[in-house]
Amino acid sequence: MALQQIIDRRAAGKNKSIGNRERFLRRHQEQIREAVRRAVQGRSIRDLERGEEIHIPRKDLSEPVLEHGPGGVRDLVHTGNRDYLTGDHIERPKGGQGGSGSQASDSGEGEDDFVFSLSKEEFMQIFFEDLALPHLVRTQLAEIPEYRSHRAGYTSDGTPNNLHVVRSMRGALGRRIALGTASRRELHALEEQATELRRQPSEDPVVRQELAEIEARIAVLKARLGLIPFIDPIDLKFRSRVRTPVPTAKAVMFCLMDVSGSMDEQRKDLSKRFFILLYLFLTRHYEKIDLVFIRHHTQAQEVSEEDFFHARETGGTVVSSALELMTKIVQERYPSGEWNIYGAQASDGDNWENDDPACQRLLREALLPACRYFAYVQVVDEPKNLWRAYEEVAATHRNFALRRVSEASQIFPVFRDLFKREGATR
Amino acid sequence: MNTQPLPPLPRPAQPLPNPSDWSFELIEQYHEVIRATAQRFGLDTYPNQLEVITAEQMMDAYASVGMPVNYRHWSFGKEFIATEKNYKRGHMGLAYEIVINSNPCISYLMEENTMAMQALVIAHAAYGHNSFFKGNYLFRMWTDASSIIDYLVYARNYIAECEERHGIEAVELFLDSCHALQNHGVDRYRRPSKKSLADELAARKDREAYAQQQVNDLWRTLPKKADAASETQASKRFPLEPEENLLYFIEKNAPLLEPWQREIVHIVRKIAQYFYPQRQSQVMNEGWATFWHHRLLNEMYDNGFLHDGLMLECLASHTNVIYQPKVGQRGYRGFNPYALGFAMYTDIQRICEQPTDEDRHWFPDLAGTPWLPALDHAMRNYKDESFIGQYLSPKLMRDFRMFAIRDDEQASDLVVSAIHDEDGYRRLRENLARQYDLGAREPNVQVWNVNLRGDRSLTLRHQRDNNRPLGDSAPEIVRHAARLWGFTVRLESVDGEGTVRQQWSVTPEPVH
Q1: Complex ipTM
Q2: Domain spans in chain B, listed from the N-terminal domain onward
Q3: Under an 8 A CB cutoff, do A68 and B471 touch?
Q4: Where are the alpha helices (DSSP H) in A228-313?
């Protein structure tokens, strides 16, 4: 009756619902963005890259269909009667409609949020979107560390373009010697014998007989030697290349932030994203990254990440104090020959007027020569005096970038040169 | 068909092997025995196609309403996430079967199942459900098993194309609105034409052109000569008869829809129509499949094909499936369709084979007749509502200790209107049958009128059943309907006397 087929579908059609998931995420992108934003605020810079639980109010997800509401007359049959008799009155249950039985199951599920987890990749995508990163950069950052292949001796298999001719021929030669030695030794001995015999009078039939035998044997040996191939697949040697992760060097990233009274939470949050972005960039290129957090008002001090983002002080601002501390730390702990030094500074741009020349000098003479890249963002829109001072420095130094930002999407351009350079060398 | 089962298969020397892990050869061996046993009972099925899938794929199929392919929509993504979460937490033993009403009939076997479970699923889905799909009149009449997969592939591609052309967002919003009305996008009484996919596709082009032309005709705005003429026009309702299939009406008559939008409405209502029989025959369908897996496996065990261990595992699972919590117990959600259906088919067999006087009185046509044809007849010619109305026996009502409660808004208390006694049997049976009547379960909403010459507004009318009002979702639904219709949509809820008791009205923003 039945044509029967058993089909193994396990390999096919994995992740078939990805498209539906994308549409789901797209539809709730506002809530998801908000959750990501909150998560970024709460997470440490080093710990940014993981998934996140997203809560969405259930009512936002409803797919309405026409239903009966409570009220009117309804008759429902239940199972499991214990002691009811026809005509019994039962008090109406509070809060719900009386025994709506099967219908309660699909409508009244309660007001819990719909919770699901965002994968690490999805989380980062949304984070990047917020920062308006160009797509090329997104892929650069989202990638697993890159590999560079380098030579590591020889192997016996590989592609023809990696064939090492000299090695292969040497191998062939060795093989030919090894395989032919016994025969060749015999051949030499026989040839000597033959020469010896030819010197004797040739009429002697015994000698002639012996000579003929020897010559026959010589022919056999020669043929056998001739059969040893000149080159054989096992002789081939190829240059071997192994892939090693590129980031092998060490880097240190200095985060400098103004914590004077005028830096409010929103500005700090903006600064944090700025630091995160640089950190992410560095993790793609360096194996070991040190983070140094320097906060300053009129004096600078090195602090933990926790204190860095959450403490707040009042008072004036002397930016050079931070630059000076950074210079000192570089000299003491991070010799620029061994470390790749990156600086990131965020501030609202206020500075004590007389301090500007000192800042310029510190940057020009001590910091910029030592740094691979130094980026500055001013988290307030209108240019302040420090901005003008820095602008002069930027005009003459290519590894110094600065930018005024008032929202997260404006941060990226300050790194544009950095990323671009990276893109070009790849 | 045979009135008695064919004789048992020759007893094997030893039972089928029973390792905990299945293998393809084993599935084939088991299937062969199940097939032969099913043949003894004359189960008529579509050809079977068994597919082995992973848990992830099972969740996937779950999320897209049990179909192997479907168009893309966020709601399926939501379902998937919810299903996956429950599965990971171990909240649900992933239901062990999905079976698709197609020809050949596709049954999914989950990779994680043990051999015993695979045997159970094959008996349940590939022979139980499959024969129901092929035999039951609703499925024979309303669905075309041979073309559904092709149609879904077509739907998926068509909607993907629309997304590319008109943007994901536009298509998504439109689909949302169609989904909101899909329960009212089915023909309940009219018999649908059975078109194959090829006909369907060929018809599409014509349909697009023709439908558009019809619509234009309907909305002709050439000035009429005299005012008197338009007076009579206005007093005539359009449509002349109320239309129950809202999506059909919108597809044919909505003034502003683009051809692709009409096609999407068409797709959504086609698929809703396909699922309509399933929604009306849950008790019958699940009960039938459960009855047969139970019967087939027991038969195989008695004939020496199954190990004790395997049979025990099957029985344990069977017992879980037909568990029926009692009212007031944790997890009580009304009747378990598996339990009720299984009990009813078993009961029919009992009435045929060992009728009591009571049964002879209630089922004179059934008592003492051969059970196989009786069961077959019951499977073929009913839906849940009529099946219960016809076959629910007093003995079952007693076994289930059924009682009916009347919840009248006007009364201060709930009243027990009937219990499982001589006076209550008929009323219980009637009430329970009505409970499975989709027509009573879902609000009865129909297209009432279109203002053809005025503001083009569409009026929908909800005829109250037992004076039950519409729920909170009504305004939302009207919004969706207005998005499809393009002009004002009004929904009136009318009681028995014809008085309008609730009313909603939404005018869409002029987007077009």
Answers
A1: 0.83
A2: 24-136+281-318, 322-439, 440-506
A3: yes
A4: 265-283, 305-310
